[in-house]
Amino acid sequence: MFLNRFYSEKNGLVRISADQASNFAKDISGDFNSIHDPGNRSYCVPGDLLFALVLTKYGLSRRMRFTFTGMVRDGAELIFPDLPGDQFAITDQKGKSYLQVERNGETSSNAHLIEKLTRNYVAFSGQNFPHILVPLMAEHQVMINPARPLIIYDSMSFAFDHLTVTEPRLDLTETTLEITGKRAEARLYFQIYEDDQPIGTGLKKLILSGLRPYEEATIQKLSEVYLTRRDAYRSAP
C-alpha cells in the first residue's frame, strides 16, 4: 500500500513519526506549511493523513464526513477501532478524540479506487494556501495574522452517486468566506468526476483565526516565503 511508509502499527496502535508526517505532507499533499515540519513548536500530523488511513483501513463509502477534533502531536499512539459502525472516532489510549467519522451507503474496498481518490483529494487539499485562500481573503479584504498564520482544518465531506468508479478527479467549484469578528469559516466546494461526468460532490471547511484588514504586500510576502520553501524542497537532490 502506498501509505505504508507514512505510519507504523504495533499491538493495535498506529504511530506516525514527525518525519513520516512531514514526508506525507510534502510528497503526497504538496503541503509545505511549516506546522508539519519536525521540530516546529506547533507541529501536528496532517489531517489528510488521518483521512487517508481511514479510507485505507475501512474502505470508501458513498457518503462520508470527517470532523477533526484534535491535533495529533509527535509520538501519539492512535486507536483505529475494530469493526466500527457508521459513526466512530480515532482516539488515543486516554480516549482523546482526534477525528470523528460518519459514513453510510455502499462501501468499496477497491484499493485502486481508494488510492486514486486519496491522492486526488489530498493534492487538492494541499493547495489551499496560497492558491485558493489568498484570492478568497483578497476578495473579502481580510487576512490571517502573518506572525502566526493559523488555519484550522475543521471538516470535509463528500457524497458519490455510485462507486463504479476507476479514475476519480476533483475540481474546485465554489469558495465562500463567512466572517464573524476575527474568525471566519472558509468553505471550499468541489465536484468529483469520472472522465467528464460528474459523479459526486464534496465540501472542505477551514477556520481562519486572528483576522485583520487585508494588506497586499504582507500577504504576498507570506505567499513568497511559502512558495520558496516548496521550490527549495522540490529542487533538492
Characterization of the model:
The protein has 237 residues and is of the alpha+beta class. 31% of the residues lie in helices and 37% in strands. Helix 2 packs antiparallel against helix 3 (111-126) and helix 4 packs antiparallel against helix 5 (216-235). A hairpin with a 2-residue loop joins strand 10 (183-194) and strand 11.
Topology overview:
Layout: E1 8-10, E2 13-15, H1 18-29, H2 47-58, E3 60-68, E4 77-79, E5 87-92, E6 97-108, H3 111-126, H4 128-140, E7 142-143, E8 151-160, E9 168-180, E10 183-194, E11 197-208, E12 212-213, H5 216-235
Antiparallel strand pairs: 1-2, 2-4, 3-6, 3-8, 4-5, 5-6, 7-12, 8-11, 9-10, 10-11
Which tags fit this structure?
5 helices; 237 residues; 37% strand; two-stranded antiparallel ribbon; Porin; alpha+beta
Number of helices: 5
> What is the strand content?
35-45%
Strand order of the largest sheet: 1-2-4-5-6-3-8-11-10-9
Head-to-tail CA distance between termini: 26 Å
| Large-scale geometry | globular
Gross CATH architecture = Beta Barrel
Total discrete domains: 1
Indicate the radius of gyration in whole angstroms. 18 Å
Q: What is the CATH top level name? A: Mainly Beta
The description of the largest β-sheet is: 10 strands, antiparallel
Number of strands: 12
| Approximate helicity band | 25-40%
CATH topology: Porin
Structural class: alpha+beta
Low-confidence stretches: none
What do the pLDDT scores average to?
95
State the order of secondary-structure elements, H for helix, E for strand: EEHHEEEEHHEEEEEEH
